[in-house]
UniProtKB/TrEMBL annotation, chain A:
<protein>
    <submittedName>
        <fullName>Acetyl-CoA acetyltransferase</fullName>
    </submittedName>
</protein>
<dbReference type="Pfam" id="PF22691">
    <property type="entry name" value="Thiolase_C_1"/>
</dbReference>
<dbReference type="InterPro" id="IPR002155">
    <property type="entry name" value="Thiolase"/>
</dbReference>
<dbReference type="GO" id="GO:0016747">
    <property type="term" value="F:acyltransferase activity, transferring groups other than amino-acyl groups"/>
</dbReference>
<dbReference type="InterPro" id="IPR016039">
    <property type="entry name" value="Thiolase-like"/>
</dbReference>
<feature type="domain" description="Thiolase C-terminal">
    <location>
        <begin position="243"/>
        <end position="372"/>
    </location>
</feature>
<dbReference type="InterPro" id="IPR055140">
    <property type="entry name" value="Thiolase_C_2"/>
</dbReference>
From TrEMBL, chain B:
<keyword id="KW-0238">DNA-binding</keyword>
<dbReference type="InterPro" id="IPR012340">
    <property type="entry name" value="NA-bd_OB-fold"/>
</dbReference>
<protein>
    <submittedName>
        <fullName>DNA-binding protein</fullName>
    </submittedName>
</protein>
<dbReference type="InterPro" id="IPR052513">
    <property type="entry name" value="Thioester_dehydratase-like"/>
</dbReference>
<feature type="domain" description="ChsH2 rubredoxin-like zinc ribbon">
    <location>
        <begin position="187"/>
        <end position="216"/>
    </location>
</feature>
<dbReference type="InterPro" id="IPR022002">
    <property type="entry name" value="ChsH2_Znr"/>
</dbReference>
<dbReference type="InterPro" id="IPR002878">
    <property type="entry name" value="ChsH2_C"/>
</dbReference>
<dbReference type="GO" id="GO:0003677">
    <property type="term" value="F:DNA binding"/>
</dbReference>
<dbReference type="Pfam" id="PF01796">
    <property type="entry name" value="OB_ChsH2_C"/>
</dbReference>
């Protein structure tokens, strides 16, 4: 029996900011969930199951928050599942929800991911002192910066590429009312002049710390037929993982990422992603990850990703717009960040992306990664159902 | 067989919480010695209150004062209180349905022993002398012989509402790095770096984990590597970390020790930070009594060719 086609019929997010002191965790997730239901013109009673995700519990220190959030998400009396794959979790969560629909376990599933970084301390959470280990580093930037340098050496990319990405994404964010950073006076010179935190990564080439939630309503073919607005159709979705460190690990272009993309393209019948995909919303927490992931995802040959960025192809008006929403560089509620990428891909093919809409976006990739480049999740969504 | 290491590991952090409107009202009420519940769509009063109706999922915000007196619905004796619990002497954990409420609140009951506690007994709030807008504003419950206290009638809105709280969390673990890493750490005490070779793929892991993550099989064959190695990649850290006593800027590098099949991470010293480069040959610098090399410094050898370490970044 073939899979049930999966449609995204509702999308909601909070206006992402540094600190939402006016709401509890429950109030935050509720806001995104209500907006997704309103977009789909559905009520809590129309939802058969809820699948949520967030980053590690000790970021906010609420153990198993899914238990306490059941009331806020209308999940009482329904299955409520939690997914947990570090920074990629927002993407994995959406895929678990999609699989429940594809397998005809449930007709309509609400999926949601969140993080309240203002009540959390990710830097601390990622740098717990371990007995007998030499303390060397704090935070994610220092972990990823040597991999960026390795990419620069391997590809021969000029130093200027990282700043170009940051400047592009921050300008895209100005067109997205939900983005956290709205730096109206941003210039390329300001990005270049910002302090070097973990050389080669500058301050303006790093993601912010945000409070936010993102929700989507996924449904089957019958649900899509009742939807008030055009749905986004799932054409392919996959997850892959690999160890954080092993002999032969390629941090610049991890095999799990390449395999994950290949699986998605096979499902969707994509032969050449550069030709067959109109835009991509990819998880770029540090600017250089744009050219790195462009290669890992097959949009450019090895060592050539930076040329796409440099040529302007990845700009909003380029032939392969990347991170139309402003990306993780402009908004980073960690647990939600992957789902925001997936939701942006869906918004684009629904024609609902507002000022940052890419004209004629028919097939768009959403991408997330997490941990030490060890978890990958991706989906390709389209304006037409998979069997059309 | 050498000793497998163990050490205490304490993880603690003062988490902050934004309360939202309902919890804000509840905790502000406690500060004013008033217990507030919330009325659900079907007319029940929930104490402690919640923001969303458990039956209909709708927002609920009709706050209702209940009495500081109530009835124990069930209990468990706690003979050995731990740090951070409401009372330092043995007490009963109780669920108390306050007069006027339909649900029970978890708290502590000050009682001389388990024989003095029973389901159905009457209890009364004992307020803390210093109150800040927290569940600990109720110091505990105490046995009480009487009917419902009258509500204060003070109302539900108080000035200067509490909007956030700080919740210290602490976990106490016993940490062990396991057999393979213990061997590695013991060897470091003799200033030797010892990894383990996978019997299948022949890769040498430093530090060893006792298993090969690629082949999924145990490793045992010990292999001494280094002491010299090659900087395969690095970053220059310009941010001072709170828990790290190192002056910035410093170089955080991946170093492939000679004979190892993946890089370990260490600090580079003995050379200006802006002269560190990929391919730099380095050796460990030890300090007396330290478990690890303090840092690595240049050996003065010619740089390694990129081809020799490009798989070890």
């Amino acid at each position: 029996m073939s899979k049930e086609p999966v449609a995204v019929v509702g999308i909601g997010q909070t206006r992402h900011v540094a600190a939402r002191r006016d709401v509890s965790l429950a109030g935050l997730v509720r806001e995104a969930a209500r907006r997704a239901l309103a977009d789909a013109e559905l009520t809590w009673a129309d939802v058969d199951a809820v699948v949520i995700g967030k980053a590690p519990d000790f970021f906010e220190g609420v153990m198993m928050p899914e238990l306490y959030l059941a009331d806020a998400l209308g999940a009482v009396g329904k299955p409520l599942l939690r997914v947990h794959t570090a920074g990629s979790v927002g993407g994995s969560t959406a895929l678990v929800a999609a699989n429940l629909v594809a397998a005809r376990v449930h007709g309509t599933v609400l999926t949601l991911a969140f993080e309240k970084q203002s009540e959390s301390n990710a830097m601390w959470g990622l740098s717990l002192p371990i007995p007998f280990q030499q303390p060397l580093l704090a935070g994610a930037g220092g972990f990823f910066a040597p991999h960026v340098r390795a990419y620069m050496r391997r590809s021969g990319a000029p130093d200027s590429i990282g700043a170009l990405v940051a400047y592009k994404d921050r300008r895209n964010a100005l067109k997205n009312p939900y983005a956290h950073l709205h730096e109206h006076d941003i210039t390329l010179e300001k990005v270049v002049a910002s302090p070097m935190l973990w050389d080669p990564i500058r301050y303006s080439e790093t993601c912010p710390s945000s409070d936010g939630a993102c929700a989507m309503v996924l449904t089957d073919r019958a649900g899509a037929a009742r939807a008030p607005r055009p749905p986004a159709w799932l054409l392919g979705g996959a997850m892959r993982s690999e160890p954080t460190l092993f002999a032969g690990k390629d941090f610049v272009s991890p095999r799990a990422g390449r395999d994950c993309a290949a699986d998605v393209y096979r499902q969707a019948g994509v032969g050449d992603p550069r030709r067959d995909i109109d835009a991509a919303e990819i998880y770029v927490p540090f600017s250089w990850y744009e050219p790195m992931w462009l290669e890992n995802l097959g949009f450019a040959a090895e060592g050539e990703g930076w040329k796409l960025t440099e040529s302007g192809a990845t700009a909003l008006d380029g032939d392969l717009p990347v991170n139309m929403s402003g990306g993780v560089l402009s908004t980073n509620p960690i647990g939600a960040s992957g789902m925001i990428r997936f939701a942006e891909a869906a918004l684009q093919v629904r024609g609902q992306a507002g000022e940052h809409q890419v004209d004629g976006a028919r097939r768009v990739l959403g991408h997330a990664y997490g941990g030490g480049s060890q978890f990958f999740s991706m989906w390709l969504v389209g304006a037409q159902p998979p069997d059309s | 067989m050498p000793e497998v290491l163990k050490a205490p590991l304490v993880v603690e952090f003062p988490f902050t919480r934004s309360l939202g409107p309902v919890q804000s009202a509840f905790l502000t009420g406690l500060r004013e010695r008033v217990v507030l519940g919330v009325r659900t769509t079907d007319g029940r009063v929930l104490v402690p209150p919640v923001e969303y109706d458990p039956v209909t999922a709708e927002e609920i915000d009709e706050l209702v004062e209940v009495a500081p007196t109530g009835t124990v619905t069930t209990w468990a004796w706690n003979p050995a209180p731990r740090r951070g619990q409401p009372l330092a002497t043995p007490f009963a954990w109780v669920l108390v349905r306050l007069d006027g409420a339909d649900t029970a609140l978890l708290h502590a009951l000050d009682a001389p022993g388990p024989d003095a506690v029973r389901t159905g007994m009457r209890v009364r709030v004992r307020w803390a002398a210093e109150r800040s807008g927290a569940i600990t504003d109720i110091a505990c419950f105490a046995p009480y012989d009487g009917g419902p206290d009258r509500p204060t009638g003070h109302g539900r809105a108080f000035p200067d509402a509490v909007t956030g709280i700080v919740v210290p969390a602490r976990l106490d673990y016993t940490y062990s790095p396991g057999r393979a890493q213990s061997d590695y750490i013991h060897a470091l005490a003799e200033r030797r770096t010892v990894g383990e070779r996978c019997p299948s793929c022949r890769k040498v892991y430093v530090p060893p984990r006792g298993a090969c993550p690629t082949c999924g099989i145990a490793t045992a064959e010990q292999v001494e590597v280094g002491p010299r190695g090659t900087v395969t990649t690095f970053c220059i850290v310009n941010i001072k970390a709170k828990n790290l006593d190192v002056e910035v800027p410093y170089v955080y590098a991946h170093i492939a020790l000679d004979g190892a099949d993946l890089a370990l991470h260490a600090r580079i010293g003995g050379v200006p930070y802006d002269q560190v480069r990929m391919g730099l040959r380095v050796e460990p610098v030890w300090t007396e009594g330290a478990r690890y090399p303090d840092h690595y410094r240049p050996t003065g050898e010619p740089d390694a060719a990129y081809e020799t370490y490009k798989e070890l970044l």
